[in-house]
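To whoever picks this up:

The parser on our side crashed when reading a file containing two proteins. I've narrowed it down to the boundary between the first structure block and the second sequence. Both blocks are reproduced below exactly, byte for byte. First block:
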Amino acid sequence: MQSNIFSQVPSVSSGSIVRYENFKSKYITPRNIDVWLPQDYDTAKKYAVLYMQDGQMLFDSAITWDGQEWMVDETMTRLMDENKIKPCIVVGIWNSGATRDADYIPQKPIALLDDSTRKEILKDVLQQPRADNYLLFITKELKPFIDSTYSTLKDQANTFIAGSSKGGLISLYAICEYPYVFGGAACISIHWPGLMRQNRQFPEAMNKYLIEKLPSSKNHKIYFDYGSETLDAMYKPWQQMVDSTMRVKGYSEKNWMTKYFPGEDHSERAWQKRFNIPMEFLLPIKK
C-alpha cells in the first residue's frame, strides 16, 4: 500500500473515518477500507450503506494524487441535515493502483468481444480480469464485516454502490450480478469504452450484457451521468444506446436517471459538484 501522505487517514469536516488498513481478502489483493460515519452516528439507530469505489479520492484533497476530492462527507452531512436522504454510512474501498482495471472492468462482457478487442482489453488490464472476484470480496467478505461491525440496515433496499469512470462500470456490473444485494447504483461518468480510446466493441458488448442481466426495475434504481469534456466527450453515443435499453427493460423516471452536464470534465472536482443528485435519487426519505 502507498506510503507517506497517500496512506494517511483522511481528515473530514464532519463525521468520522474509521480506517481498516490492508483489509485482507481471499479473492483480491489487500487494500485500505475507509468507513465514514455520520457525525450523529448512534448504535441505537440503523443506517443504510453506500459502497464507493476509488475510496482514497472521496474525502480529503490534501492526500489525493491530484489534489481533488468528492467532498463526500460534506455532501452527505448536508443532505442528511436537510432531511433529503436517509441516514447512511459510506464505505470507501480503495483501488489498489496497478490492479484497478483488472478489478473494475466487467468480466462477462469481455467474453462477448471478438478476439482482437479482447486481446486489446487484456493488454490494457495487464493481467487476467478479476471483476467477479472483486464482487465476491464486496458481497462475501466486506459487506458481512460492515454489517457485523456497524449498526446497518442489511437488506437490498438499503444497500447501494457507486463509482466513477471504470468505477462506474464495476458498480453497474455489481447491481446486475448481485441484484439481491444492491438496491441502487450510481454510475458517474461511466467509462463505456472500457479502453482509453474510443471504440464500439466494448460498449456494444456491455449493452448486450445489460439486455440479458439488468435487474428488475420494480425494486432497483440506477443513475447515470456524463459531461462533455476530456474523457467524458466519448460517452454520449454509448449512453444513449444504454438509455434505449433501459426503456426497453421497463425503467422509467421513478427508478432510472441519466443526466448530461455540458462543460463538465472527467474529474473529482466535476463529480463533487453533482454528487448530491444521485444521492437524493437513490436514498430519499419516504414522505
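<<boundary where parser fails>>
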Amino acid sequence: MAEGFAQLLKSDVIKAFSAGTAPQGMNPLAVKVMGEVGVDISANRSKHVNELVDELINVPLDFVVTVCGHANETCPVFPGRTKVVHVGFDDPPKLAQSARSEDEALVHYRRVRDEIKTFIETLPSILIAAGKS
C-alpha cells in the first residue's frame, strides 16, 4: 500500500521500492481497499528484500522505511549512508484474522490504508528530519 501511495502522490520527489522480509504475495483485500481510493496495485508483486538489494546494488538508497515490527527487527544492513527509519503500522491480515466477514475485515484494511496515506503525504520532509537524528 505504501509503494502504491508513494508512486501516486510523491513520484516527483521519491523513487519508491517495496519489499518484505517475509513476502506472502499480494493480499486481495489490500488490492481491493487501494482500488477503492483509485490506486491500482493489482499488477504489483510481493518481493523479498534480498531481491531488491540485488536489483539496487548500484543504486544508493537514502532511506529504508520499515512499516512492521518484524521487518524492523530483521531488516538487512544496506551499504553506504542508507538511513533505516521505522514507522510502525498495524498488520491488516493479523487484525482481520478474527473478522467474521469480509466487510468486517475490510474495516481494518481501510484504517491502515488511510494511516499509510497520511504518512506518505508527509514525505520526504519527515524522512529528512529523521535522517538528522
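After patching the parser it read the second block fine. The longest strand covers residues 63-66. The two ends are 27 Å apart (CA to CA).
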